[in-house]
């Protein structure tokens, strides 16, 4: 028995080794790609005077304590840099795996719940399957996300990374894929160093970039803090209050505030239910609303007495007007950016999620009497469409000459793991097997891939306790699309339709059939959708539905 067990273990070890050693095929002809993360998307290490390194972001053991000791900082208006309060250490970004290590899994030591701390991991794995190779055609750029997106030290590092990627790939121009605030960093670089950008960059794909800010999310982050986990797990991570004290001194956060000069279709507001007294001393409750420029006074007053204790010393941490001034200059840099003539820009943004836009404190029943009362409160959001963090209006308003802007139903962090986004990227990167008929612009409108979904039935007992049969469970779902020319009726008996071309005024009819079968229902429904293309890209939609009765 022992011999058989040893042989089984040995066989498993060999099998696991084979799996581990299996490498995807490498395509040396691919253009190099550089991944740029957003805020909080890079590993940050603290290096002491002896050169010893310790990961500070992200970690779970002693996370809040080390975060306060090593990452809390103060802004230096003369240099534009925010400097750690701990003068005996400095913050660095690890460069292992050609920059990919710092943006892959943010806590490599974590085993349980590892998905939560994975950043670009899924995209890196997917791109390796497409034929990319680390250090040859796939690279990363992590950075200290506390700093301004236009800090000269960061710009210098980014220029050096572009040059090194260009050299390592044999002189091929680069495609940059940025996520979230990484888009602002790339745009700042493109504005300040357009000649270098044009020399090394072929394409830039921005995903979920807050080009005009993330108003609701940033307002509450500055006033109430930010939490990356909810519930009891907060006890093992960084508290909202600790995060708030860091963010108040981060130029990058102020650069994510609502752009004050942008012509918003829906203005982001800071609203407060206030209690005031009339000339007779009678209390009166009013709802006051403030646009982005007007809200600065409210935030300044609310944080005027904010202090932290660092190593036994009380440090005042108010709303920082010096950082706001710096951020306003950053907005000017961003607004002057232009895509070089030899480069192409693409914008992917998230949709279909309630996204904080305006925020309200207090209520008619419990009004605010002192602005300092705002800090411990939880604001009530007024939401718009977006990815849950960045509104669609902000993400679409890149102000650049874009080759394409594609909205994808997805959440801010999850969008860089989304299969549809992978398909779009694969198409734009010209990686893997190319589909000549695929167009990312209508991926979610008229050309979905044919698919089938089957779900296992979960038996449920009915109200009478009879049990056994499920009530309403979808067992299969089929969807197919095809291009049908105008003279479809005359050729519909032909076996195949190939080589269909249309002029601008003779757009094809796109017809779909969606069938859903149910168990436990008395009828089967079948829906048909027709999208008729017209001149100028106009579409008309015709929907029909039929129902077939079923026996009990």
Automatic annotation (TrEMBL):
Quote the PANTHER family the UniProt record gives. Answer: LECITHIN-CHOLESTEROL ACYLTRANSFERASE-RELATED
Mind telling me what this protein is named?
Answer: Lecithin-cholesterol acyltransferase-like 4
Q: Extract one GO BP annotation from the record.
A: lipid metabolic process
Q: Name one GO molecular function term.
A: O-acyltransferase activity
User: What SUPFAM superfamilies does this protein's entry cite?
Assistant: alpha/beta-Hydrolases (SSF53474)
């Amino acid at each position: 028995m022992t011999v058989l067990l040893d042989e089984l273990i040995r066989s498993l070890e060999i099998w696991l080794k084979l799996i581990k050693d299996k490498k995807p095929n490498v395509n040396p002809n691919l253009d190099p790609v550089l991944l740029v993360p957003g805020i909080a998307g890079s590993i940050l290490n603290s290096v002491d005077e002896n050169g010893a390194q310790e990961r500070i972001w992200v970690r779970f053991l002693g996370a809040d304590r080390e975060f306060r000791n090593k990452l809390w900082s103060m802004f230096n208006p003369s240099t534009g840099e925010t400097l750690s309060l701990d003068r005996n250490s400095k913050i660095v970004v690890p460069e292992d795996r050609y920059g990919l290590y710092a943006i892959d899994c943010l806590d490599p030591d974590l085993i349980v719940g590892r998905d939560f701390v994975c950043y670009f991991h899924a995209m890196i794995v997917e791109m390796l399957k497409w034929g990319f190779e680390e250090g040859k055609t796939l690279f990363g750029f992590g950075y200290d996300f506390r700093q301004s997106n236009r800090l000269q030290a960061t710009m210098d590092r980014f220029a050096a990374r572009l040059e090194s990627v260009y050299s390592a790939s044999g002189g091929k121009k680069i495609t940059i894929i940025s996520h979230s605030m990484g888009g602002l960093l790339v745009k700042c670089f493109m504005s300040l160093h357009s000649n270098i950008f044009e020399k090394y960059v072929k394409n830039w794909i921005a995903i979920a970039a807050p080009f005009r800010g993330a108003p609701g999310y940033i307002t509450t982050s500055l006033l109430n803090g930010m939490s990356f986990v909810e519930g009891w797990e907060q006890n093992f991570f960084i508290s909202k209050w600790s995060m708030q004290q860091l963010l108040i001194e981060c130029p990058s956060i102020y650069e994510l505030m609502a752009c004050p000069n942008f012509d918003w279709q829906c203005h982001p507001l800071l609203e407060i239910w206030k209690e005031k007294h009339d000339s007779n001393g009678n209390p009166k409750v009013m709802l006051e609303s403030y646009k982005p420029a007007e809200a600065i006074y409210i935030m300044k007053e609310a944080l005027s007495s904010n202090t932290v204790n660092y190593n036994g010393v009380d440090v005042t941490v108010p709303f920082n007007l010096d950082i706001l001034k710096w951020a306003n200059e950053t907005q000017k840099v961003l607004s002057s950016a232009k895509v070089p003539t030899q480069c192409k820009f693409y914008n992917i943004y998230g949709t279909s999620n309630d996204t904080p836009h305006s925020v309200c404190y207090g209520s008619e029943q419990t009004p605010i009497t002192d602005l300092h009362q705002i800090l411990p409160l939880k604001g009530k959001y007024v939401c718009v469409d977006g990815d849950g963090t960045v509104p669609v209006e902000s993400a679409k308003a890149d102000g650049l000459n874009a080759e394409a802007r594609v909205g994808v139903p997805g959440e801010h962090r999850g969008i860089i793991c989304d299969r549809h986004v992978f398909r779009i990227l694969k198409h734009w990167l010209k990686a893997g097997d190319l589909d000549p008929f695929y167009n990312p612009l209508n991926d979610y409108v008229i050309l979905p891939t044919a698919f089938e979904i089957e779900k296992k039935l979960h038996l449920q007992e009915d109200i009478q306790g009879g049990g056994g049969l499920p009530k309403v469970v979808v067992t299969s779902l089929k969807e197919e699309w095809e291009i049908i020319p105008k003279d479809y009726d005359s050729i519909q008996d032909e076996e195949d339709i190939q080589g269909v071309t249309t002029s601008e005024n003779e757009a094809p009819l796109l017809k779909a059939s969606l069938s859903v079968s149910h168990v436990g229902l008395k009828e089967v429904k079948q829906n048909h959708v027709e999208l008729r293309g017209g001149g100028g890209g106009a579409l008309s939609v015709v929907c029909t539905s039929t129902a077939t009765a079923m026996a009990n």
